[in-house]
Write a structure and sequence with these properties.
TIM Barrel; alpha/beta; 10 helices
Length: about 350
């Protein structure tokens, strides 16, 4: 591991690029102007993270409308116009989901241009996020495979193809986002980890998986309020993740009811610890970030810890989000200065 801080995924988009404060924003531009604006926003996100002292930067998902559907829009076999309203994340909330209408395939690389734009300006390690196989199938309506495991492995194959192209384009870390892991425990054990490993098969850069309690949106906040005084989801899935091929596990901790002792279940994995709460606008201090890392260090060796955000920050106020990242970078440095 060559960095002490990173971000979990998305960052807020500039108001000149898309609607603000929304998880599913509408673009402000179209055509060539939109392509150029996405590139400019990606470069700006890289520079903002670097200015905040983030060690491993990302593109901030500036060119994607959503963390799942950005990738899916580049695939065949999915009809984005034929949406079906269904419950996702084990009934946590309803969503209008595009329909799988045939065998899925990737006719061309989806995100290579975004990585190229980011790589040109990132001065250190560059991270890129993609949706994981289980989360993909949980965010679609399936009229073709009619079997979640079969569909997941079909998407794992396409993710693997995409990742090979992203590695060639210069990415250093690839993270698969699997919030669905936090609700489908039996499926994670049965086939979710195998699908994760299939997606990462042969990928020769740092491999990460992100499992959290969701964006700071109303449905997720309500769900978390009903989980009780101790959130035990990680206790169920960390033993499964420990047998996977991933090098790094990105998790939620700050201002949560996650019992920190569960981090010990990750064995030899590096842990990207959520030190920034994305569900409120209060800006953490560097000392609070340091303290969260110190808490995690009771259960994970300090050299395996990375400071991160609890989840993506896409719906947040942009000024507040970047102020939080400055605290993240400073807190990570403060912890590194005193860690054994």
């Amino acid at each position: 591991m060559t960095y002490r801080s990173t971000v979990a995924g998305s960052l807020p988009k500039p108001a000149w690029l898309a609607e603000t404060g929304k998880l599913w924003p509408q673009w402000r531009l179209s055509g060539d102007a939109l392509v150029e604006a996405k590139r400019d926003a990606t470069i700006l996100a890289i520079e903002e993270q670097s200015h905040a002292g983030i060690g491993c930067v990302s593109d901030g998902e500036q060119a994607r409308v959503h963390f799942v559907h950005g990738f899916l829009q580049g695939l065949e076999g999915i009809d984005s116009e034929r949406k079906q309203r269904r419950f996702i994340r084990d009934g946590r909330y309803e969503a209008d989901c595009p329909t799988i209408v045939g065998a899925v395939r990737r006719p061309a690389p989806v995100h290579v241009a975004e990585v190229a734009a980011a790589r040109a300006f990132a001065r250190g390690p560059l991270k890129f996020t993609l949706p994981g196989p289980m989360t993909i199938v949980d965010t679609l309506y399936d009229e073709h495979y009619r079997d979640r495991k079969t569909a997941a492995f079909a998407f794992a194959k396409l993710l693997n193809e995409e990742m090979r192209d992203l590695v060639a384009a210069g990415v250093d870390v690839i993270q698969l986002d699997e919030p669905a892991f936090n609700v489908f425990f039996d499926e994670v054990d049965d086939w979710g980890i195998d699908a994760l490993d299939a997606a990462f098969d042969g990928i020769a850069v740092r491999r990460a998986v992100h499992v959290c309690y969701g964006y700071g949106i109303e449905a997720n906040i309500k769900w978390k309020s009903e989980l009780g005084a101790e959130w035990d989801q990680y206790a169920h899935i960390f033993p499964f993740i420990s047998r996977s091929c991933v090098d790094e596990v990105s998790i939620e901790l700050a201002n949560s009811h996650v019992p920190p002792h569960v981090l010990g279940g990750l064995k030899d994995k590096d842990v990207a610890v959520g030190c920034i709460d994305v569900a409120n606008d209060r800006i953490e201090t560097a000392d609070e970030v340091r303290a969260t890392l110190a808490l995690a260090a009771r259960y994970v060796a300090p050299e395996r810890l990375i400071a991160s955000t609890n989840c993506g920050m896409a719906p947040m106020n942009r000024t507040i989000a970047y102020a939080k990242l400055h605290a993240l970078g400073a807190g990570a440095d403060a912890f590194a200065a005193i860690a054994p």
